[in-house]
Amino acid sequence: MSEVRVHNFSISLDGFGTGEGQALDAPFGHAGERLHEWFVGTRFFHAMDDLPGGTLGADNAFAEEHNPGIGAEIMGAGKFGPPGWQDDPDWKGWWGPNPPYHTPVFVLTHRPRPSIEMEGGTTFHFLDTTPAEALAQARTAADGADVRIGGGPTVVRNYLAEGLIDYAHIAVVPILLGRGVRLWDNLESLNHTYNIESVSTPTGITHLTFTKNQ
Amino acid sequence: MSEVRVHNFSISLDGFGTGEGQALDAPFGHAGERLHEWFVGTRFFHAMDDLPGGTLGADNAFAEEHNPGIGAEIMGAGKFGPPGWQDDPDWKGWWGPNPPYHTPVFVLTHRPRPSIEMEGGTTFHFLDTTPAEALAQARTAADGADVRIGGGPTVVRNYLAEGLIDYAHIAVVPILLGRGVRLWDNLESLNHTYNIESVSTPTGITHLTFTKNQ
Ligand SMILES: NC(=O)c1ccc[n+]([C@@H]2O[C@H](COP(=O)([O-])OP(=O)(O)OC[C@H]3O[C@@H](n4cnc5c(N)ncnc54)[C@H](OP(=O)(O)O)[C@@H]3O)[C@@H](O)[C@H]2O)c1
Ligand SMILES: NC(=O)c1ccc[n+]([C@@H]2O[C@H](COP(=O)([O-])OP(=O)(O)OC[C@H]3O[C@@H](n4cnc5c(N)ncnc54)[C@H](OP(=O)(O)O)[C@@H]3O)[C@@H](O)[C@H]2O)c1
């Protein structure tokens, strides 16, 4: 069966996947860009924006796992837009006319709207359903390929808690945020079901990988 | 001036420095021995108990920083004994007649008792005072040497929050505890005052070091 994967999900040392005070001009709240500096510097990220340059090396090697084999993404309402986007009928996500997904994307929200077809193969679908049912739909749309759980922290945590994730790559950034949305909350159960690897790189990032035991 | 240091302080990936349900037969609650397996396996730990063997290598290298230059320790009531030890006039700590400190040890407690002199140079003193005042007393007792903040998580967190720690070595163990006492709580401020290094070792431990900016 196809796998369910998390990639390049960044948290602070104290476990926050986003800061406090998310808004249109502050997609990560008071965290600013600090959770993703390591990622936007990579060659993988540059290429996603059709930019030259960016670093090769250990951080980029992890970053590059993001897309290969992925046929659909699931994300939360908090990743799709700032608080209140549901009141704006024209909101189409943060990513402009040609979002970097190029697959169907399923947005979990309690206020669904009709699907939006974007350029480059991305279609946003809006679902108000359980994580398992959303996954079933994404699997069908992915047509045998893998499904990425794209964030934010609430949605990744929910999928982890339900045991639905096969592989998760979490990048721990050496900052302390103190407040925001925690990834780690009541996830004691993971300890028994995953093999966990840790790799720290010279830039200070610790890459954790969780691989589900067979 | 002498430095204030934390060494070999172990936390889970989700940031807990001890589990839930601390008791006489469960010093770390439901965490059991899992937070310290890496540490008790080292040659440093074996030598502390006058045992032969134990591993050399990266984890042991970090472990060995524990004692050199230290002239006193400060610990919390929760490290000194299980809940309720204050009601037992004969309680002298977990460590037998010759505790592995060999220096004055200051126990922070709201129910202080007279000092206890043990074999091997360890004397337990009991203080009901502020972190800063306890540190002043420990510095005097250390006579120019450094002071170790020994734990548990509550006491380490309090000293970090007050900006009183010069160097902290935190060992992140690849387990998820889900519940217990968190080290990371409202420590956003650290981000601006410390240089943070991360080193993961082949055993899966990530050693974080916090070094105060000059
Ligand atoms: N650290 C990273 O690598 C990373 C990655 C991606 C995003 N982010 C950041 O994470 C933040 C968003 O994370 P978040 O945890 O606040 O929110 P989120 O996980 O993106 O979304 C949670 C929201 O999605 C909706 N939802 C979730 N499950 C649902 C279900 N089963 N049925 C219906 N609706 C459901 C609910 O919103 P409603 O009730 O409002 O519909 C819920 O509040 C943003 O700041 C984003 O920039 C970080
Ligand atoms: N992870 C590690 O490497 C590590 C290291 C050492 C210990 N531990 C574990 O950590 C656990 C204990 O940690 P904890 O966070 O529960 O407790 P703790 O930090 O050892 O002690 C906190 C307690 O100390 C007393 N206290 C603290 N500051 C005080 C002050 N300024 N004045 C007076 N009293 C003060 C209070 O107790 P009262 O009000 O009761 O007096 C307070 O509840 C144990 O399970 C221990 O085995 C773990």
TrEMBL record, chains A, B:
InterPro entries documented for this protein: DHFR-like_dom_sf, RibDG_C
GO biological process: riboflavin biosynthetic process
Coiled coil (UniProt feature): none
Gene3D superfamilies in the cross-refs: Dihydrofolate Reductase, subunit A
Molecular function GO labels: 5-amino-6-(5-phosphoribosylamino)uracil reductase activity
Residue stretches making up the Bacterial bifunctional deaminase-reductase C-terminal domain: 8-195
Protein name: RibD domain-containing protein
SUPFAM superfamilies cross-referenced by the UniProt entry: Dihydrofolate reductase-like
Pfam hit, one: RibD_C
Organism: Kribbella kalugense
